Amino acid sequence: MEISNEIKRIKPVYTKIIKIPKRYKMFLWDEPTGKTYIEKYILRILYYGNFEDIKYIFKKYPKETYFIAFRYPEIKRGVKFWIKLWKTKK
Prior knowledge:
By secondary structure, this protein is mainly alpha-helical. It has helices at 38-48, 51-60, 62-71, 77-89, and strands at 17-19, 35-37.
């Protein structure tokens, strides 16, 4: 069996360690210490969060959120739309 496309891992750019807020611990179930790096935190909220969660994370980390949203292909198109709209309004 031959594999035609390799899946390549995207290495994180934002590696600052932050404490996970209590309301987002359910998104980061694999972090028992309560701390994670910022890129993983933002990525999980963009992937699993609702509109208010995404708006909150964008207000808190606008530059990082914009970069991460357009770096990962699994982020949904609607999420990218709102982030791009919020970025242009600033």
